[in-house]
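During the no-cost extension, the postdoctoral fellow (Dr. R.K.) reprocessed legacy sequence entries with the updated structure-token encoder. One reprocessed record is reproduced below for audit purposes.
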Amino acid sequence: MQFWFKKNKDYPLFWQKYGNLFSEKKQKQTFQDIRFIAFDTETTGFDYTHDRILSIGAIAIKNNAIEVSDQLEIYLDQEVFNKDTVQIHGIRKNNGLSKVLEKKALELFIEYIGDAILIAHHAEFDKKMINKALSRHDLGILKNKILDTGVLFKKTKHQVYLVDKYNIHYSLDELCNDLKISKSDRHTASGDAFITAMAFLKILPRFNKGKKMEINDLFKVR
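Re-encoded structure tokens follow.
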């Protein structure tokens, strides 16, 4: 068992395998070899404690291209239901979709992402929702590095993006408008994951300005 596992803790096999991916020493990957996963969650609301994940959408990016054949879409049984948010995500309590229990959804998601670098828009929210769900099943937290398309986009707009006057947040709709991305399937997890993947690929040329891209460049605060 790895250092983040509690001593004598009997974790499920999928979580042990996931942890082992981050304990193994790997050769340095080129930017083109890295598997990125753009993902999104649709939820019953914005409260990390009381609200729940309704669906998870994810799609892979590799070698500067979206891997359409490498994607995941999961709908969860609705332990919590908030009719006020249905008009946003369109997921009803009884809509005939094939759904799984939360723990199974987490297992499918963790097995899918592996040690990929995750990408999300306003990533802190999605990360916290996933981590809260993991904690309900007495697991750990996400180990993957995570990039936020909102932060990356802001870096291309403002040289010193953390200064107060630049402390603004760009919505995914604003990125779509600026980057000329279609908004079809907005507010579905799989649709927003695809849009986030498109945004990421369109931001990269602005970000590196023709220079050779190194993965660490994307995580630098500038």
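Residues 48 and 129 are 6 Å apart (CA to CA). The domain at 33-219 is CATH 3.30.420.10 (Nucleotidyltransferase; domain 5). The remaining legacy entries will be reprocessed before the final report is submitted.
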